[in-house]
Design a protein that fits this description.
Its EC number is 3.1.3.11. InterPro entries: FBPase_C_dom (IPR044015), FBPase_class-1 (IPR000146), FBPase_N (IPR033391), FBPtase (IPR028343). Its main location: cytoplasm. It comes from Algoriphagus aquimarinus. It is a single chain. By secondary structure, this protein is of the alpha+beta class. The protein is 29% helix and 24% strand. The strands form four sheets. The chain has an eight-stranded mixed sheet with strand order 4-3-5-6-7-8-9-10, sandwiched between helices. A five-stranded mixed sheet has the order 12-11-13-17-15, sandwiched between helices. The longest helix is centred in the first third of the chain and has 21 residues. 48% of the residues are buried.
Length: 345
């Protein structure tokens, strides 16, 4: 019997399809301090749900799943049908996967206890962010944070398992359902991005080791709320205009964040009269993006302190958010701290 060592093909006839997310997760498993494979499985569960949500969002116009669901969520926002569907998809994937003991979701009033006391992880998730953009074919996203539970497995979940500061995240990521669908995640060892190849049904590594530019020329803020900003934010945005920076605001946090992460820029959602503590949620929006930002060399602050160090006290706690290229965030933060705060109108 003749045995030959494998020689990778050099002919170039069959081009390489690259590294799948599954293979990448497996390769990187040993980077993770508790490398037991459970976190890897959890990431795969999230990726599977993301593929299903991707299928449903891209077909939304064809099936009767566009438009409002007819209910208001705990945030007081009108739920879209796809918000509800995405929530079901992720809940199902996370509960069947068996690695998770509890879920905090934008769409759920309370913590969802999966009654799986052997699960080591807690997931905080915004299943479909920017959902008001669904019906008009504009990019939307999923944002997730993964925490290791603090209490021992085998015992019921406690408040301390849920109310963890962002610094405690063991992994975080987002899925962007855009001109292509991407999954970007970190386990605290850099940030990697994967593009979904629809015909193969796989995410492939397309953006290895993402590094955010330290500075940029894009600012993203809802200028319709300008009358309600504090002086520091006003001064910073004026300065962006003086410098002829470009204003780019999609109104989908994941999409705005992703663009600025790759191109250099800053996203701001400051306190306003309507949302005096900011609009974005700490546990399942700001924290995940803040970890990714920091891992890519960017920054995230509420204007005063690092987002990741905020100790949450309530489930759906909101926070002002300034996130993006480090030089821009530092400059905005310093203007906020030096200018005397004007009362909100
Ligand atoms: O989750 C809230 C969200 O939809 C973000 O995706 C988005 O950046 C922001 O709200 C848009 O808010 P507004 O419409 O007030 O600008």
């Amino acid at each position: 019997m003749k045995i030959l060592p494998y020689q990778p093909d050099q002919s170039g006839l069959a081009y390489s399809v690259g590294t799948t997310l599954d293979r990448f997760i497996k390769l990187k498993q040993s980077d993770f301090p508790f490398a037991s494979g459970e976190l890897s499985q959890l990431l795969r569960d999230i990726a599977l749900a993301a593929k299903i949500v991707n299928r449903e969002t891209t077909r939304a116009g064809l099936s009767n799943i566009g438009g409002a669901f007819g209910q208001v969520n705990v945030q007081g926002e009108d739920q879209q049908k796809l918000d509800v569907i995405a929530n079901i998809r992720f809940m199902r994937a996370l509960s069947k996967g068996g690695e998770v003991c509890a879920i905090v979701s934008e769409e759920e009033d309370a913590v969802i206890d999966l009654q799986n006391t052997s699960g080591k992880y807690v997931v905080a998730i915004d299943p479909l962010d920017g959902s008001s953009n669904i019906d008009v074919n504009i990019s939307i996203g999923t944002i997730f944070s993964i925490y290791r539970r603090k209490t021992p497995t085998g015992s019921p979940i406690q408040k301390e398992d849920i109310m963890q500061a962002g610094t405690e995240q063991v992994a975080a990521g987002y899925v962007l359902y855009g001109s292509s669908t991407m999954l970007v995640y970190t386990t605290g060892c850099g940030v990697n991005g994967f593009t979904y190849e629809q015909s193969l049904g796989e995410f492939f590594l397309s953006h290895p080791n993402i590094q955010a530019p330290t500075n940029g020329k894009i600012y993203s803020v809802n200028e319709g709320t300008q009358r309600e900003w504090e002086d520091g934010i006003l001064a910073y945005i004026d300065q962006c205009k003086d410098r002829r920076y470009s204003a780019r605001y999609i109104g989908s946090l994941v999409a705005d964040f992703h663009r600025n992460l790759l191109k250099g820029g800053i996203y701001l959602y400051p306190a306003t009269k309507k949302n005096p503590t900011g609009k974005l949620r700490l546990l399942y929006e700001a924290n995940a993006l803040a970890l990714i930002a920091e891992q890519a060399g960017a920054m995230a602050t509420d204007g005063i302190q690092r987002i990741l160090e905020i100790q949450p006290t309530t489930l759906h706690q909101r926070t002002p958010l300034l996130i993006g290229s480090s030089e821009m965030v530092k400059e905005a933060e310093s203007m906020i701290s030096t200018l005397i705060k004007a009362p909100l109108l």
